[in-house]
Each structure stands twice: as C-alpha cells, then as structure tokens.
Amino acid sequence: MTLGFNSPIDCNGAAYGKDLNIKSCVEAQNLIPTTDSPLKFGQRFRQGVDVPTPWRWVSTDGKCVIEVPETKLQSAPQGSYLDLSTAADDMVELCLEYKDHPEGSHASNIGMANAVSFKLSHAGDEHQKSSRAKLESDSIIGSSGGLSLKMMSYRPVVSCRGYLSFTGGKNMEEIMKKMSAENVKRNFGRRGLPGVRVVLPITFTSSG
Q1: Within the chain, what is the greatest distance between any pair of CA atoms?
Q2: First-residue to last-residue Cα distance in the chain
Q3: Coil, helix or strand for 15?
Q4: DSSP code of 128?
Q5: How many helices (H) and strands (E) does the chain have?
Q6: How far apart, in whole angstroms, are the C-alpha atoms of residue 20 and residue 25?
Q7: Could you give phi then psi for residue 133, rounded to 5 degrees?
Q8: CA–CA separation, 118 vs 137, rounded Å?
Q9: Is the full-model pTM beyond 0.90?
C-alpha cells in the first residue's frame, strides 16, 4: 500500500504578506495546471529539467503570486502540477479562508519525494500454525528534499502600453523559460558604460 503525507504549511504574514486578497490568490491557484504527469523541477538551463525555477503564477490584478522557489539540489526534485495545485488549495483554505486576516504562506515537502511506498508481506513457514505480518519499507520515491511553494502578496510594477497581437500562452511560456532568474544584483546599461554587466536592450523571442 502507498502512504501519502500532507505537506507542512506555514502561515506567515510577516514573511509572505498580510491581508491577501482571497479572490486574487484563488485565481492564481486556478492557473496551475492539474496534470499528474511527473516533472523534474530545477535550475534554469540545466539539462533534463522540465520546469525551470523559480516559476510563478500571478493573478490578473498582480496582487497575489504563487511561486515554486529556485532549487539548487543536486538531483532535481520531482512532482506534478497536480501536487502543486493541491498544496495551493490547502494554503488558500488554511491561511486565507480560515483566517480573520488572510496571510501568505509556505508549503514544503511537496511531490514525489513526499511519498513513501510500503509493501505488506507475510513471513513464516506454511507448515507452522501461525505466521506474522511484516511491514517493510520498499523505497522512497523521488529525490530528497522535494518541492516547496510560496503564496505571497505582490505589488506589480508593470506598465502596460501599446498593442500586442497575442498568439497564445505557449509562446510566452517559451520566452519566460529563456530568461535568467538569478537573485544576483547586476548593473544594466548601454554597452561601453563603466560597470555595466548586462548590456541593454535585451530581446527574447519565441521560436513560433
């Protein structure tokens, strides 16, 4: 039999924001796919990674963010979008709907690393009158560490202008996967200026 364990959830307004808008966070949660195919999550541009981290789902008003934080584990944690969606649903229920003052949260140990498979077998001689049942651990599925998820308040700093002929989310997703997402400060500017590490402008394009 397979025993699953719920992911620990930390409701923490000081770290992840207070008085979150429940409607916005439910909208962000509904953006997470619910497919149960196993995926590998890991650092961007790393070979064999299906979902580069960090990866975010943002409500249309930009006020609630659900994020799979960057992972730097040696072996890429495995899980499914359904695992993340289920965890996000629990976070909404425990830290938003059940609270007088909804607050952001963090869930850990999500995914296949959180499941332990057991097999039940019987040990004993058939000629003996009694046999004893032995419950033995078969294996731990996935890599150590597992996945985590954050639900946070957010203040968008995006200015919308001009016109875009929208061609579908897949192209936008492809562009986002090409973008670096390191938490390292760098100087951006024109080529030739002193101290510039990232030359502007930068253009990302999809293959479609």
Answers
A1: 87
A2: 45
A3: helix
A4: S
A5: 4, 13
A6: 8
A7: -85, 135
A8: 5
A9: no
